[in-house]
Amino acid sequence: VQLQAYGGGLVQAGGSLRLSCKASGHSFRSYTVAWFRQAPGKEREFVASISSTGDDTYYSNSVKGRFTISREYAKNTAYLQMISLKPEDTAVYYCAAQSRGLYTTSASMYGYWGQGTLVTVSS
After folding, report:
1. Please, is 76 exposed, middle or buried when counting C-beta atoms within 10 Å of its C-beta (0-12, 13-18, 19+)?
2. CA distance linking residue 101 with residue 14, whole number of Å
3. Contact (CB, 8 A) for 5 and 93
4. pLDDT the model gives residue 102
5. Burial of 12 (0-12, 13-18, 19+ CB in 10 A)
6. Taking the mean position of all CA atoms in its chain, how far away is CA 39?
């Protein structure tokens, strides 16, 4: 499966953005999809994941209550709705997919990656 992330941009603190992850390939619905982010000088960190069925989601503590992950099978697309953004949310955001399960938070366990989209939150 090939992934393409887009929707990043510059937003003020407290604002919102929605990221999209467009997938190509008929097997998209078979994969858990996740969002990761990487800030300058930091390691890539897990943000959120959604199960292959779309019934279950999992979030890092840093974004729980502010970010919502979802997926739309008809469009082969996953989303990350972000509200109440903070300057510390500034990072390149990547979508990724794997077939191991919802609670896989290690980037090394994801075999498919999008190219990343930059989110900048100004204070």
Report:
1. middle
2. 32
3. yes
4. 82
5. exposed
6. 14
Structure tokens at 77: 């697309």
What is the C-alpha to C-alpha distance for residues 89 and 122, in angstroms, rounded to an integer? 10
pLDDT digits (tens, 9 = 90+) for 69-101: 999 999 999 999 999 999 999 999 999 999 888
Q: Are 19 and 79 in contact (CB under 8 A)?
A: yes
Task: Say if residues 33 and 96 touch (Cβ distance below 8 Å).
Answer: yes
pLDDT, position 92: 98
Q: Please give the average per-residue pLDDT across 21-33, as a whole number.
A: 89
> Among 67, 75, 76, 117, which residue's Cα sits nearest to residue 95?
117
Q: What is the mean pLDDT of the chain?
A: 95
* Helix (DSSP H) and strand (DSSP E) numbers for the chain: 0, 11
> Is residue 26 pLDDT above 80, yes or no?
no
